[in-house]
Amino acid sequence: MVSDQLSAGVRNAPTTARTGSPDPVRRRAGPRRRGSLAVPYLLLVLPVVLVSLALGYPMVRQFVMSFQEFGLAQQFGRPPTWIGLENYRQVLTDPYFWIVTARSIAFCLVSAGVTMVIGVAFALLLQKLSTFARIALQIALVLAWAMPPLAALTVYTWLVEPRYGLVNWVLTSLGLVGFENFSWLAGSPWTFFAIASVTVIWTSVPLVTLTTYAALTQVDEEVLEAGQLDGAGGFARLRHIVLPIIRPVILLIAMLEIIWDLKVFTQIKVLQASAGNNRSTNLLGTYVYETGIGGGNYGIASALATVMLLLVLALTWRYMRTLMKQGDI
User: Fold this and answer.
1) Residue 67 DSSP code
2) Which residue ranges form the domains of the chain, and what is each CATH number?
3) Which of 127, 160, 304, 315 is found 20 to 30 A from 86 (Cα to Cα)?
4) pLDDT single digits (tens) 210-249
């Protein structure tokens, strides 16, 4: 009886099922699916083209000029002369280049390190604040981050002005000797870079704070409760649970901070206008600018910029490898 019913069901099945011919709906879904798979790649075409035009050509041009003698004469029509690695030899054998490089790396590591510590601390603080206080602090951070660098630098220049600046007035009012008419920018390279580092940290802390806080909001509360039940205190939960979870975000932000702080230009260049001694306060960014645009030696400047690019890649390669191993890139 059962076999008869199965036989009848097979006889009454659609022809497409018995013959194995494709379903019309499936036949139409094939091209549609292939089209949907191609959409992401088509959307990437325009950004890739724009980035290639905006950054690709200047980088190729810079690389080519680094092997040429390209100075003021070439700007007035004389063909550039190919000199091979001569520009790189001059750069790498110049003691001042190594002084500027060491100075830039030290400035970068100090500024990026302090920025990360303050930013992560502020992010942890945001979790403990009330809703109103948290929103107010977030608005303040966004406003600080959105402030144009030149406007912020103008404020800092006024604050450390030798005769009428607020910083010297406060220190003098506290009875500290030696700060009357003290020039923070022109007095010493150490004080110059202290002020420059503060301006860089001021600009970077809001982004680190808001990004880290966004990562902290994704930490599962059940995991923290389980750690608390196991006897882990607040610092232990932070060290062994929270920080490992948000580690990819912190590594990514740290990598970006190193890149930004190593090639910092605007803050140093504006503050140098008040310092008056560029040679003792140059970093790689301003050194490249002075060599190229200021001195007219674009061949040497291109070689400097290429070496600077390689230095950035070397400093960030470890972080990139770590992120790629974790599958975040």
Assistant:
1) T
2) 68-325 (1.10.3720.10)
3) 315
4) 999 988 888 777 777 676 676 666 677 777 777 888 888 8
